[in-house]
């Protein structure tokens, strides 16, 4: 019995020690777990995010920019479709601390030069360690040979609250866009929430911007702290990185198009704005010297020269608009075909316009630049209303707070440009025009002046009469709105003159007829008119 007790005690002790062993092993494992969990966020901190690409110095260079939360080196690995060899390119890393306490502070930039037009490339970005490798993305370099249609997505004023960002991302995956142009007011604002809004926005558009060059220009919402977030988070052609705050403009040739991107904010600060004007002058003169190879010149800057919004504080509503004052003559004398802006949260298209006058009421062989304002992706931030007192240069407006619109620009060849605007909620067509220009030139060069007897007031009057069926003579003789529209004025005077002559020549007959009608029998006798009812 005692022996048995002894044995069972031994057994008990044995089990107890096994139990202790198991517990200690488990505890150790748990401790290890804690250590590995401490390591886990490290890879998270090094995970590349906000990947976006843009053109480098030329349209066959690509710059890839991304962000991480911890410091790392910057590497891009890329290859073509046939995957024959993977090339590695290294770049630079900088840290953005200003207004970026909670953001991913480490920004990476790698440039890949001299890629082949029309070829599809696949790439990943990464840091030092293999486990920082990003998903794979691809982009196709724009083809340059004649006969290729160049397609671009264009809009201004988009942020994280814009409802249809996901649609736009999907749209760029479906349709082949050479580039996306976001004409200022990016993210509202890149530095908000200590940098988190900028990160959120760039992650929202990553699927689009990692595959299609995302070309930007600065808007008023990028101005804080000398554009610092804009200058660090993006890298635009021909500019060093971070982009210099006194040189936020660039130009780029894609196919038959010379794009000129400028910074309208310089006109609204005390900064020196002459250097941009000088640069524009030189750049556009050089572009005109190559006009046969680059027929189309398209300029984009955040604030428009013309607009019909009801908010009279806006520069573009003013007689002395600063943007217009500095740029209109320059763009006219350098033959800029199309000017696209954002800033106002609606859509407006003008006729070919110069000095607040429509030069024609169609887009065939325009004699001046066409202006387009497309900032309606920003309506969630502020809805813009159009004014009733629109200038004659205004051709079309959409100021619907429920519509978030984007533009699709297609250049078919040297003579044909197609512009359409679509609703990003249902992809419905909202507007379209063809601009047909067979003689691209500085517009002041050969002004073949064919007077239009109707003038633009007359044209507009006919158009309005056509539209609503009313015969608005009141408007026609209203006087003051004619301005220097001498064509319509002369036509009106001519008609008055002709009526006067007719009256003078036939005054007797006319007076007799009037008398006959008004005073009945007496004058009829004098007239010797045929007898009525046998009476004399
Ligand atoms: C340019 O493209 C348009 C639209 O596709 C076409 O109608 C026109 O014939 C083309 N012109 C030339 C010179 O190829
Ligand atoms: C057109 O404008 C430019 C720039 O102001 C000027 O140099 C040129 O002489 C003008 N050409 C004509 C024909 O007026």
UniProtKB/TrEMBL annotation:
Residues 1-31 form the signal peptide. InterPro entries: Calcineurin-like_PHP, Metallo-depent_PP-like, MPP_PAP, PAPs_C, PAPs_N, Purple_acid_Pase-like_N. It is an enzyme of class 3 (hydrolase). The keyword Calcium does not apply. One of its GO terms (molecular function) is acid phosphatase activity. Its EC number is 3.1.3.2. The chain crosses the membrane at residues 490-506. It catalyses: a phosphate monoester + H2O = an alcohol + phosphate. Residues 368-431 form the Purple acid phosphatase C-terminal domain. Keywords: Glycoprotein, Hydrolase, Membrane, Signal, Transmembrane, Transmembrane helix. Residues 152-347 form the Calcineurin-like phosphoesterase domain. It holds the Pfam family Metallophos. Residues 48-140 form the Purple acid phosphatase N-terminal domain. Belongs to the metallophosphoesterase superfamily. Purple acid phosphatase family. This is Purple acid phosphatase. It comes from Potamilus streckersoni. The lineage of its organism: Eukaryota, Metazoa, Spiralia, Lophotrochozoa, Mollusca.
């Amino acid at each position: 019995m005692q022996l048995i007790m002894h044995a069972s005690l031994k057994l008990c002790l044995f089990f107890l020690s096994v139990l202790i062993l198991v517990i200690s092993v488990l505890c150790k494992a748990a401790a290890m777990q804690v250590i590995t969990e401490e390591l886990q966020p490290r890879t998270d901190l090094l995970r590349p995010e906000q990947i976006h690409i843009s053109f480098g110095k030329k349209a066959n260079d690509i710059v890839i920019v991304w962000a991480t939360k911890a410091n790392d080196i910057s590497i891009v690995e890329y290859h073509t479709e046939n995957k024959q060899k993977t090339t590695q390119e290294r770049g630079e890393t900088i840290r953005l601390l200003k207004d970026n306490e909670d953001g991913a502070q480490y920004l990476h930039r790698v440039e890949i030069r001299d890629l082949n037009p029309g070829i599809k490339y696949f790439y990943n970005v990464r840091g030092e360690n293999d486990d920082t490798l990003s998903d794979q993305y691809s982009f196709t370099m724009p083809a340059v040979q004649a006969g290729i249609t160049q397609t671009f997505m264009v809009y201004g004023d988009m942020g994280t609250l814009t409802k249809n960002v996901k649609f736009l991302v999907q749209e760029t995956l479906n349709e082949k866009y050479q580039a996306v142009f976001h004409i200022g007011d990016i993210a509202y604002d890149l530095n908000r929430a200590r940098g988190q809004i900028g990160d959120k926005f760039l992650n929202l558009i990553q699927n689009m911007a990692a595959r299609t060059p995302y070309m930007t220009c600065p808007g008023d919402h990028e101005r804080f702290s000398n554009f610092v977030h804009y200058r660090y988070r993006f890298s635009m052609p021909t500019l060093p990185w971070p982009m210099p705050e006194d040189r936020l403009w660039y130009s780029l040739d894609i196919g038959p198009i010379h794009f000129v991107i400028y910074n309208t904010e310089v006109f609204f600060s005390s900064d020196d704005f002459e250097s941009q004007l000088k640069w524009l002058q030189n750049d556009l003169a050089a572009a005109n010297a190559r006009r046969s190879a680059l027929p189309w010149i398209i300029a984009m800057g955040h604030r428009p020269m013309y607009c019909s919004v009801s908010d009279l504080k806006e520069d573009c509503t003013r007689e002395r608009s600063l943007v217009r004052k500095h740029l209109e003559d320059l763009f006219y004398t350098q033959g800029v075909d199309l000017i696209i802006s954002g800033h106002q949260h609606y859509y407006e298209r003008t006729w070919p316009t110069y000095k607040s006058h429509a030069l024609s009421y169609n887009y065939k062989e325009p004699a001046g630049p066409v202006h387009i304002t497309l900032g309606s992706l920003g309506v969630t931030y502020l809805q813009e209303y159009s004014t009733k007192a629109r200038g004659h240069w205004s051709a079309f407006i959409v100021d619907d707070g429920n519509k978030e619109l984007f533009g699709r620009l297609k250049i078919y060849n040297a003579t044909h440009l197609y512009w359409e605007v679509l609703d990003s909620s249902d992809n419905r067509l909202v507007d379209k025009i063809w601009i047909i220009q067979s003689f691209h030139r500085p517009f002041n060069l050969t002004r073949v002046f064919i007077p239009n007897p109707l003038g633009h007031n007359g044209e507009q009057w006919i158009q309005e009469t056509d539209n609503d069926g009313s015969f608005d003579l009141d408007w026609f003789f209203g006087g003051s709105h004619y301005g220097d529209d001498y064509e319509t004025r002369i036509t009106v005077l001519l008609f008055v003159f002709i009526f006067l002559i007719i009256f003078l020549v036939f005054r007797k007959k006319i007076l007799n007829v009037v008398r006959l009608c008004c005073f009945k029998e007496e004058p009829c006798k004098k007239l010797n008119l045929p007898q009525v009812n046998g009476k004399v």
